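hey
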């Protein structure tokens, strides 16, 4: 069965709904300007784990870097706040 464009699984303009709770947490901390090392300390994980989560985030969001991922995240958060009004 092929999905038509109108068969979206999630109507939100926020693509971060694709992320696991931990990936969303990592992206949230990255959006605050924290470095990988600072994120690792906050989450009590290794820097390698942070890099692993960031790579998964980039893949899921279809972006190539942290700046673009954070931009999508912040636009999505802003869109959600606007829709709630």
């Amino acid at each position: 069965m092929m999905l038509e464009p109108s068969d979206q699984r999630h109507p939100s303009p926020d693509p971060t709904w694709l992320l696991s709770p931990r990936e969303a947490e990592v992206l949230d901390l990255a959006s605050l300007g924290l470095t990988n090392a600072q994120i690792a300390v906050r989450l009590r994980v290794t820097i390698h784990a942070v890099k692993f989560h960031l790579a998964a985030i980039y893949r899921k969001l279809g972006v190539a870097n942290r700046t673009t991922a954070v931009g999508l995240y912040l636009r999505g958060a802003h869109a959600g706040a606007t829709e709630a009004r």
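Residues 17-83 form a domain with the Arc Repressor Mutant, subunit A fold (CATH 1.10.10.10). Residues 29 and 42 are 9 Å apart (CA to CA).
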